[in-house]
Amino acid sequence: MAGGKGERFWPLSTGNAPKPFLQLTGEKTLIQLTVERAARFVPKKRIFIVLGKKHLKVAQKQLPDLPRDNFIVEPAGRDTAACIGLAAITLLLRDDKATMVILPADQYVPDVDKFADTMRHCVALAQKDDSLITMGITPTRPETGYGYIKAGKKISSFDDAVCFAVDAYVEKPDLKKATEYIKDGNYYWNAGIFIWQVKTILKGLEQHMPNLYKGLLAIEDALREGKKTKADTIFKDFERKSIDYGLMEKARNVLMVPAIFKWDDVGTWASLQRVLDLDKEGNYKQGSTICIDTKDSVVVGGNTVIATIGVSNLVIIASKKGILICSKDRVQDVREIVKSMEAKQR
Fold this sequence. Notes:
The chain is built from eleven helices and 14 strands. By secondary structure, the chain is an alpha/beta fold. It has a five-stranded mixed β-barrel. It has a four-stranded mixed sheet with strand order 9-11-13-14, with no helix packed on it.
């Protein structure tokens, strides 16, 4: 799943090139790295990208090895339930026995071998029964920006991977609650990674999101008849709802596998300090920078020199689209800049 509004990584990101298409963690973009991870356990001909029309050109340019038919274009943004449903119907038309692995295209996973091993285990588990499998990340800090999954009864184990029933999905907590979850030991971060058979997800949507399911069947009929415009019209009428709200929180056949790989959603500029190499003062620097008496900061620029003296706890980003200077404590508010610019038509 690739998309986004390009808000949190302004001024580097834009609506036409949001986070998945940025080189945030190295020389390759996040979507290129995601495809490389997936290609470790499936052939590239079986890797599909679901995205909006305005992101199609940049995605195809960055992923020239993928077949053109493997880019599934959403007619409109309708959140993850509709996105995953459209992908399921598209795969159903190709192989009614298909198993799906759903990956957000903008996450940081450096342990590619462990990731591939975990996905193989999850696919094998999904093909054994009609379970909806989700990936849980063992929390390393009391994070308030993530949703949580509460693990219940241990169902099975295989090799070094363990499987649990899911007791509950928990919304983003405050700091006190997040700290309690860490101490409890049964709570995991919700990574938004899912594994299941196509027939299983469609059965779940039929039970818990019947309107979406009926619409998807109508899209299937339209696509079989070659009526793409009709299919697009049906999709645009779908309700905006996430797969977590619409299905996962309600279903009783959900299993959770804890990840054995390192993971980060790289959700803000400040998060780069968690995943990338820092200098001895705790700064992450990229591009032409001169930092004197500067601590715990993120400084990113291109060819233009960014110079800092005697500052700390700052995020300073320069691009052709603008310059951002903010406290690290306020990086979640960067999107407000984009909203303000849109309101002023800038």
